[in-house]
Specification:
single chain; 180 residues; alpha+beta; 2 domains; three-stranded antiparallel beta sheet; two-stranded antiparallel ribbon; 6 helices
Length: 180
């Protein structure tokens, strides 16, 4: 997740100029006259691409094989999206060494409830005496730039397609049909 909001700028052909009053105020608050900064060029993602991801996740959710029903990620499209983010590595992982398996199991139950309440979905497991808790990265415009979103979208598309037994291209097309 980004530490601070990005400052939106427009390329004029010769320089970058803050895009609007809010962006200009951000720049003035955070930069001094003559300060040199490095730019991270990360174009915004399109609303169409964003909607397409939600459409193919919904399509995958509607087509989950029976053996997935009853799992925590099958309760909603949002749970499935967050599950896919975690499974494809777009997550934060916290680990706690607890000393005994009993302590680890108690801590896992608490950590799972707290993390799910905070992030909407979490996967918590115990390996030996260590608790692992995985929470999905946010895909909001503020938290995830265009390139990272593009990678996460493709990885999720491939993961979910495999989950329901179709190719990524087939799921992408099915998602476009239901996109309206």
């Amino acid at each position: 997740m980004r530490e601070q909001d990005l400052i939106r700028a427009v390329w004029t052909g010769q320089s970058f100029v803050p895009d609007g009053h809010y962006a200009l105020a951000q720049a003035r608050d955070r930069l001094g006259d003559g300060q040199v900064v490095n730019l991270d060029l990360d174009p915004e993602r399109s609303a169409k691409s964003h909607k397409h991801q939600f459409a193919f996740v919904r399509t995958a959710w509607m087509n989950l094989p029976e053996h997935h029903l009853g799992t925590p990620y099958a309760v909603s499209t949002e749970a499935l999206r967050k599950y896919a983010l975690i499974q494809t590595g777009y997550c934060n992982t916290e680990m706690m060494a607890m000393g005994t398996t009993e302590r680890a199991n108690r801590a896992a139950a608490l950590l799972s409830r707290v993390s799910t309440n905070m992030h909407g979905f979490a996967i918590t497991n115990v390996i030996g005496t260590v608790v692992y808790c995985h929470t999905p990265h946010s895909q909001s415009m503020k938290a995830m730039g265009g390139e990272a979103f593009k990678r996460s979208k493709q990885d999720m598309l491939e993961y979910l397609a495999d989950m329901i037994g179709v190719t990524a291209d087939e799921l992408a097309k099915m998602g476009k049909k239901g996109e309206t």
